[in-house]
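Module 6 notes. Inverse folding takes a fixed backbone as the condition and produces residue identities as the prediction. Think of it as a translation problem where the source language is geometry and the target language is the twenty amino acids. Below is one complete input and output pair. Work through it position by position during the lab.
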C-alpha cells in the first residue's frame, strides 16, 4: 500500500474511530496520478460515529451511502478523495444476494484493500462482508453469464449488466478491462464462490458449464430486470440527496470543472457553505465564459 494513502486516511480520520476504511477504484488499481480521485468507504458501527449533521445521518440511514469530498496535503502533495459511509449493518445487507441494490456488492467484488481497521474483530467483520460481495457477484455471474465459458466470460457478462443498471460515466468496456488486468484473481475466485453457495457446475479443460435449468435462468433474468429498473432511480435519488448531504461538494465540483476545462473556479466561503444558493449564478457565469462548450 502506498504510504501516501495510509497518511491520507490517518489525517482524514483524526480522532474518529470507525470500524474500518476500505480503499478501491482506479487509485488502487492504477496508482496515484496528479488527477487521481481516491475512493474510500468508511464503515461505522453506528451513524453517530462520524461527525456530521443530524440531517446527513438520517439521509445515510434512509438511502445509503452518504458521500464526502476530502482534500488533504500529504508530503506537500494535495490528494483528493471521494469518501462514502455505511454502517456495518448496512454493509452486510448491501453485499448479500437478496439485496435489490447492486451498487455496493458490485464495487466490492472488484479489487479492494482494507487500509485501516479499529481492531481484529472489526477486520474480521469487514473481510466477511467483502467475501459476501464477491460471492454475490459470482452468483449473478452464473445467472447472467453464458451457460458455458471461461471464467472471464462470466465476470465480463456480470459487469456489463451492473454498469448498465447504474448511472455510470465510464466506458462500456471498463469492467472487462478490470477483469483482464486481474484475470488470475477472478479465475481463482469464481469456482470456490459457486461451491460456497451450492451452485452446480461441470469443468473441463476447455470451459466451465453452469448446470441449471432454463426455468432457473429465466427466474434470475426476471429478478435482475427488477434490480435494473430500480438501479437508475436509486442513483438519481442519491444524486438528489447529495445536493444536501455531500460535504465538500462545492470543492469537488470546482476541481472537476478545472480538471476538464482548465478554468479555475473561484470559491468563496459562502459558496462552499451554501452551494445550492451560490451555484446557479456561478454556473451561469462559467457558461457565459464557454466552460461547458463541447469543443473547448
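Target side of the pair, the amino acids:
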Amino acid at each position: 500500500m502506498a504510504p501516501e494513502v495510509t497518511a491520507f486516511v490517518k489525517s482524514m480520520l483524526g480522532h474518529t474511530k470507525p470500524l474500518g476504511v476500505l480503499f478501491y477504484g482506479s487509485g488502487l488499481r492504477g496508482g496515484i496520478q496528479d488527477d487521481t480521485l481516491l475512493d474510500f468507504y468508511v464503515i461505522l458501527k453506528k451513524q453517530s460515529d462520524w461527525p456530521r449533521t443530524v440531517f446527513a445521518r438520517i439521509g445515510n440511514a434512509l438511502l445509503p451511502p452518504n458521500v464526502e469530498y476530502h482534500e488533504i496535503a500529504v508530503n506537500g502533495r494535495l490528494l483528493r478523495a471521494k469518501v462514502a459511509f455505511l454502517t456495518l449493518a448496512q454493509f452486510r445487507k448491501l453485499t448479500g444476494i437478496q439485496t435489490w441494490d447492486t451498487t455496493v456488492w458490485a464495487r466490492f467484488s472488484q479489487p479492494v484493500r482494507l487500509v485501516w481497521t479499529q481492531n481484529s474483530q472489526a477486520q474480521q467483520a469487514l473481510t466477511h462482508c467483502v467475501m459476501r460481495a464477491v460471492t454475490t457477484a459470482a452468483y449473478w455471474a452464473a445467472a447472467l453469464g453464458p451457460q458455458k465459458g471461461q471464467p472471464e466470460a462470466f465476470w465480463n457478462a456480470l459487469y456489463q449488466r451492473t454498469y448498465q443498471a447504474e448511472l455510470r460515466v465510464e466506458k462500456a468496456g471498463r469492467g472487462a478491462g478490470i477483469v483482464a488486468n486481474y484475470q488470475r484473481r477472478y479465475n481463482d475466485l469464481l469456482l470456490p464462490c459457486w461451491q460456497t453457495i451450492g451452485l452446480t457446475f461441470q469443468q473441463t479443460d476447455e470451459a466451465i458449464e453452469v448446470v441449471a435449468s432454463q426455468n432457473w435462468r429465466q427466474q434470475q433474468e426476471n429478478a435482475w430486470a427488477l434490480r435494473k429498473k430500480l438501479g437508475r432511480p436509486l442513483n438519481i435519488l442519491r444524486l438528489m440527496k447529495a445536493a444536501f448531504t455531500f460535504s465538500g461538494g462545492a470543492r469537488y465540483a470546482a476541481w472537476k470543472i478545472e480538471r476538464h476545462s482548465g478554468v479555475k473556479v473561484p470559491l468563496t466561503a459562502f459558496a462552499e457553505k451554501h452551494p445550492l444558493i451560490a451555484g446557479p449564478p456561478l454556473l451561469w457565469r462559467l457558461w457565459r465564459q464557454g466552460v461547458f462548450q463541447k469543443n473547448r
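Reference fact for the lab report: The chain has two domains: 3-247, 248-296.
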